[in-house]
Structures are given as structure tokens and as C-alpha cells.
Amino acid sequence: MKNKSHIFPIVIVLLFVMLCNTQLLAQKTEYYRHLVFRETPYSDVRGIHPIDNETANKEAHYRFVFDAQNRLTEVSHRIGNDLIADNGNWDTFIWFSPKMTIAYDGDKEIRHFYNIANQRIEAHGKMYKAVFQLDNQGRRTSVALYDKDNNPSENAWGIHTYQWTHTENGTVIEKRFNLKNESTTMRPNLTFYTIRLEFGEDDLLDFVYHIDEDGNLINNTMKAAIDRIVYDQEENFSRWMVFDKDKKPVEGNAPGFAIGEHLYDAKGNKVGLRGFDVEGRLKAFPNGIAKEVHVFDEFNNPTESKFYDIDNNLLQYVKRIYSNDGKRIEWLKLLDENGELTMHPTAKFAAMKMEYDTNGLVIERKRYDEKLEEIKTNN
Questions:
Q1: How far is CA 134 from the centre of its chain?
Q2: Could you tell me which residues come within 8 angstroms of residue 189 by beta carbon, excluding any fewer than 6 positions away?
Q3: Four-residue CA torsion sign, 29, 32, 35, 36
């Protein structure tokens, strides 16, 4: 009997250890350098360019956490275990904060947003909480946005709700509404209202059709009715193509290209951007830029960006200087073709220094001229 009294606490300890191990096994973590492009919040959040934990400790990446049912519960942008702010990599229109959590409650999927100090915030306008409604097949049918006081709110594009209808042929009809229940566009510079989303067998969005209430193609204010999205073998968003309602190539939708093209390095970093007219000739953005070239460091942070006009003349040269661990930007410098500081004609500075608090949040941006003399502003 004496020996049995010692066995009981040992069994309890063993059971506790087994329970902890089971919980650890139930949670799965994955790491990716980049996100699959999303044009709509209907699409799943997915990663591309997978890496291991050791690499994730040294490079900017997205950490995905899944629960025991293999449901995504968290996505965050990090280097190692530290959250990082947007580093300018631009993976998708639908990514608004360094961290997003996802909770499941019956037929609802609830998302919250966080800053780099791991504090819940209102992101992309007044979006503190996004509540997705699911049908009996687990498909998203709508999402409504709420502010920090739990009042209905709008995002930065003036949208309160997205509504999705699933068709028999597998496409999805999307509509958007503001707080006045008025129909809204996809984005301020993409004036599609009711759209039909067509996904490929890989679940990547291939076509966005602008339609009327009868499902007929219609041109928007930018001469476009169809956006075709193309991916390369690594699932990078490599090209978009624009067509009118007659399915003819057109220089429509912002920024007014018939074809736009992203260029990537082996890690999936976007090192170039350019656009073309209907004849396949290089075309400039409305601001005169015809080509972008970006350089990335060992952390996958963009350190240099050069912008050229249609004649390959340098229009702007931006250099970013990061902390030694790559986790935050310390300086933004505007340079000329000789690599010398130059005043930006509209920004009115040649360099900017970011000051941070102990949580890593920006508390001040100091501006300097081409002689690195601070520019004082009147409050």
C-alpha cells in the first residue's frame, strides 16, 4: 500500500504531460515568405514559398497557426517571434495588419486585428472586428465590419458588408454595401460593382467579371468589364489582363494598362513592375512611372526602389535603412541618380527618420533636407 501511494501522483504527472503533448500536436504551425494574392475577403488566406522554422527566425515571413481541426486561427507577419509592420513587400490588397486572429463560433468566423505591439486595433479604416457568416457547407456568404465599440463600421474603401452568392457552376457573385446600404465599388480606383468571381481548380482567383443584375457583362467607368489574373508556377501573381464587355483587350481600370506584369526573385520577392498597352508596348502609369525595380536584403525587406519613365530615365530613387535585426525601418532616404540626397518636390523632404517607443510603435517621424538638417514644422 505504501508503494501505491507514490504511484498515484506519478500517474497524474504522466497524464498531465500526455495532455500537454496532445495539445501541442493538435496545433500546427507553418511558415511562408509570402501570401497568395487576394482581391476579395471571400478568398482563403494562404501562404506561398514555404520555409522552415530556422529560416523563419532569420527572415520576414508569415506565420500560420492551425487548430486541431486544421482550421486557420492566426496569421502574422514576423521576423523570428517578433511582429513586424508592413515592409513594403505588397502581396495582396486584403492584408491590413501585422497579425490577424480567426475564431469559430457555429456558423460564424470572427476575425480581429493587431498591431506590432500585439494590441487589438481598428485596421483599414474602422475595422476592429470582421464577422463572416457561413452556410451549411462552410462557405462564406457574407462579412460585416464593426468598430472597437462594436458598432457597424466601414473599412477604408467605404464598405460595411460584403455579400456572396454561390452559383451552380461554382462561381461566386459578390456585392458590397456601405452603412447606408448603398452599393459600393470594389475599391475607389476599381469601379466594379456587382462581380462574378471565377476560381481555378487550384482555388486561385482567375477572373473578375463586372456584371449587371441579369449576369451580363458591362463596362465600368474605366472601360473595363473583365480582369484576368495570372499566376506563375510558384503561385506568384505575375500578370493581370483587362478586357471590355466584348472580351477585347482594353487599357482600362487603374492604372490603365491592358496588361500589367510583376517580376519576382527566387524567394518570391517582387523585384519589378511594369505595364503595357493593347499593342504590347510599355506604358507609363498616370504619374509618369513606367517601370519599378526593387532590391531586397537578407531579411526579405525591400531596401531600394527605383522608378523610371518610359524612356528609362530615373524619376525617383528610394532607399530604406532598417535596424540591424531587420525588424523595423529607421531611415527613408530619397536619392538622385548619383545616390545623393535630394528634396522630393511634393513630400518636401529628402530623408525621414522614424522614432519608436518601447513597444516598437512609431511615435515620431523627423524630416530632413538634402543636407541632413532637420526640417521644423509649425504645429
A1: 23
A2: 254
A3: negative
Please compute the mean of the pLDDT values over residues 94-121 and round it to a whole number.
97
Cβ-in-10-Å burial (0-12, 13-18, 19+) of 168 comes to: exposed
End-to-end CA distance of the chain: 81
CA dihedral angle for residue 245, residue 250, residue 252, residue 257, rounded to 10 degrees: 150
List beta partners, residue 331: 321, 353
In this predicted model, what pLDDT tens digit does every residue of 211-226 receive, in sequence order? 999 999 999 999 999 9
Q: Grid coordinates in use for 286?
A: 498616370
Question: Picking from 23-32, 37-46, 251-260, which range would have the lowest pLDDT averaged per residue?
Answer: 23-32
Contacts 24+ apart (CB under 8 A), 74-80: 74/99, 74/100, 74/101, 74/102, 75/45, 75/99, 75/100, 75/102, 76/100, 76/114, 79/299, 79/325, 79/326, 79/327, 80/56
CA dihedral 44, 48, 51, 57 (to 10 degrees): -70
